Each structure stands twice: as structure tokens, then as C-alpha cells.
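explain this:
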Amino acid sequence: MSLSRAFFAVIRRDLVLALRRRSEIANPLLFFILVITLFPLGIGAQPHLLQAIAPGIIWVSALLAAMLSLDSLFRSDFDDGSLEQMLLSPHPTTVLVLAKIIAHWLVTGLPLLIVAPLLAVFLGMPNHSLGTLLLTLLLGTPVLSLIGAVGVALTVGLRRGGMILSLLVLPLYVPVLIFAGNAVQMAGSGLPVDAQINILIAILLMALVLAPLPVAAALKMSIH
């Protein structure tokens, strides 16, 4: 099998498994929706306040929803032995790992991207900032999956690695949260957001290039 066929075979396999275990898709999405809808109940009927903090609410909810789904990235493969078979494959582990991360984003990040505009309208976000919100989610949620994969790979061999995983990845998520939330907030005020978008693009490109290497190395350490 060629490298490209192996790459798409891994993506297809993970998507099929996710469709069979629909909770992997539903749980992060429902968590995302519930957290956002609970904020107006807790804050009260204050439209101006909700509109002001809507970018932060959406992005914090997306970050927490992404963290909720991280443990499933390599856990089932580790338990059934398919992860070891992947590491023994003649194909570069970094490419196969990147395929799994892309499949994870398609299952968990893409649904958040689809429902986010509806929730943004629910929070009273201005219509002219919805495009920036979608763009930041499109650039930022893959970074969450890429960075999270490093933490998952380091903790996949631990029985209770959830707390350690949170401590590892949360500090690395902060730059994405800051620049993405600030971009949406400035777009709502009619200010230019080119600088924040360019920084998010740079972070995404760096994560795409750098993340698969430590993920592959950490998985090999976890297996052996």
C-alpha cells in the first residue's frame, strides 16, 4: 500500500469507528451546546453583557469540548493493540499519526464549527463578526487537536491520565484562546483583525509541522 493510500485508509477507518460509536461525536457537541446555553441562565437577561463576552464563551466552550474528546484519540487503539500495529507499519509513523489527528478533528472539531454560528446568534453576537468567528474556529480547532495529541500520546499508557493530560495541554491552549477570542471581539467592534488571523495561521502551520514528531516519539515510548 502506498503512503497516500495508507494515510486515507487511517482516516476512513477512524471515521467508520466514530460512526459506530456515535457518543464520540455527540458528547463533545452536546457539552459545547450545554455550556453555552447555560451562560445566559447564570448571568441573567443582560443582552449587552452577553454580546460582549460571547466570543470568550464560545471559545472556552470549544476548548473544553475539545479536551473532553482527547482521550479517545489513541485510547481504543492502545487497548486493542492496533496502535502497536500502526507503529510497526513500514510507513512513517508521523504521517499515520497526522491522519488520526485529522480524523479526530473531523469527528469533534468540525461539528463545533457547524453549530457555532447558531449559538453565536443565540448569544447576540453581531452578524458581521460571525465570519471571523468561523475563521478562528477553522484555524484554531485543528491546533487544539494537534497540541492535544501530544498530551494524549504522553499519557496513553497511564490508567488515570486525565488530570495529567489537562495540566499538559491547557497552558499550550492559552495562545489560541487569546488570539482567537480577541479577533472575534475586535471584529464585533469593526476593527481590523489581520494580525490575529495571521498569528493563528502561523500557529496552525507550526503545529502541523512540529506536532506529529513528538506524538510519534511519545507513542513509541508509551508502547515500549
Notes: DSSP finds ten helices and no strands in the chain.
